[in-house]
Input
Amino acid sequence: MNMGLGLYQEQTLKLVMTPELRQAITILQFSAVDLMTYLQEQALENPVIDLQEAEIPVKEKKEATTEVDWKELLNNQSNTDYSVNKDESAYNPLDHVSDSSGTLYTHLEEQLGFVKRLTSTQRQIAQYIIGNLDERGYLEIPPMTIAGNLGVSQEDVEDVLCVIHHLEPAGVGARSLEECLLLQLEHEGLDDEQTVKVISEHLLDLANHRYAKIAEKLGITVLDVQRIADLVRTLNPRPGASFQNTDTRYIIPDVSVEKVMGEYIVIVNDSSLPRLSINRFYERMLQEKSSQDETRIFINEKLNAAMWLAKSMEQRRLTLLRVTQAIVDLQYDFFEHGIHHLKPMTQKDIAERVQLHESTVSRATSNKYVQTPRGVFELKYFFTSALSTTSGEATSSESVKKRIKLLIEQEDSGKPYSDQKLAEMLEGEGIEISRRTVAKYREEMLIPSSAKRKRFK
Output
């Protein structure tokens, strides 16, 4: 066998992902919020691009089939508005969202300013305590440690902590869940002896609905334990959570579905996106004959990148429009009659209908929401698995979940349905489903088991 180095010619066929193609795929899977951020980044990198707020909304109800002259479109600012169906009303619901910039520390510090007869040392202890509360509003540092750090007595720390326990929100400064709940009951004047004993000694049994066990140990009735459990559910185990300054992500629907003259019309909601145009300065430089060759080459490269960006945006809009329209056509009964008429549907069904690849459908529906007459839904919501029926037809898993929830809401609280009983009831309605599937759907809807749903009368 001869082994050696050599040169050979071989023909192969492979798909090369160009930067432009990667950009088009990336833009397709962006939501409206992510696309806005991406456009701003591109405007910073490409000086040729100008982003302006849309002024003239353009309403489109049908897919455009004519060819687009992208150079003319980009050079003409009056035609570069990609906004669709912009609401004529100036009302913006986000303008009426309250400001939650206040922190738990500032809230408690403000209340301490109204507390009289506190010495400078006590105020220093109070500020140290409220500065060490965690996001729940709990104090995890022992008073002995605080006293050692500040060089004061433990009694002084306990006295100041008692003052903080009487501040709002009720339960702040607690060192455990039990203490947090007891402080809230004391604040409401509901800290009777039975309730205090149940929370202090049997909170875990209460959470697991072991009402009979608690009643036997304390010598009270099961109804008394159930009453205490109902009271505990009204309390807040995390009193400081409402002061967390987390970024709130508001859903901006990418597509809207409206019923007009008995027909459902799909409208791509890109009114929130800025319009893309060419910077006039670079346009004049490109037209000047005195411009250097290197400058013209640079501007041409950036202009081509801007043109491809605009084309990718338009392709995203048309793809999203076609995919959503196909979903509406297949789920017409859902839009007319509700979730019980949601049909099983896969991405393959939509891909075959619009003649696209499944991966393209997946990207077009990823992280995108649609506003419909029945509410706002994620586009992925409409892709559900199928369950067989006795008639040989298929039903959607989402409609089955809705039916399980409705049956549980209508059950006798004293004798709640078990998962096996729910499965039998659904089979009586023609839906073939196992007990394990019922339990899975119930847990996905965060509905407790029958043992924990039982109510004593």
Observations:
- The chain has 21 helices and eight strands.
